[in-house]
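Memo to structure team: turn this sequence into structure tokens by end of day. - J.P.
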Amino acid sequence: MNLLIRNECEQDFRRVEEITRAAFSYPGRIEQGGIGCPYEHWMVHELRQRDGVPGLSLVAELNHTVVGHIICSRAEVRTPDAVLPVLDFGPISVLPEYQRMGVGKALMHHMIGKAAGMGFGAILFFGRPEYYPQFGFQEASVWGITDANGCNYPAFMGMELVPGYLAGAKGGSYHESDIYDDDRNRENVKAYDRLYFT
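Reply from structure team:
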């Protein structure tokens, strides 16, 4: 498979949002209590302008066609004594017809390597605990970090990119961009869709 991972450029924006929308428009989503289909394409749009990290919005190109995307954003661990900057990622999207072909894995490996090369100390995020440990992620409870509500669970995971970086985070809580707040952004998503996806 002739797969190229490269930085997203402005010419990719619309294509990436269409891919993200398609990737997350799965059957039964609305019934599962989410914001509805879709939501993540709006998150990508907003992250580019707000909390996204330049150089860590990446596309996967297969035979000169963009088929996948991953984006990273700034987050932090807050302790009583300090605020520790960390990296968050997501959404990661692959067109449905190219899923289970290694595109997502290639995006993940490239993102992790590039983030480390850029000097980021750790990644924390919420995701599928049956999938992400293959890349080296562990439950965030390993470092004594909770989510913003003081909770731990398998879907809250992390990885140190610099050994020992999270040693001072024990007892801290994780805070990500507010674009991930479904309820707060529900009307923003609807308005964006009316403008660009109807």
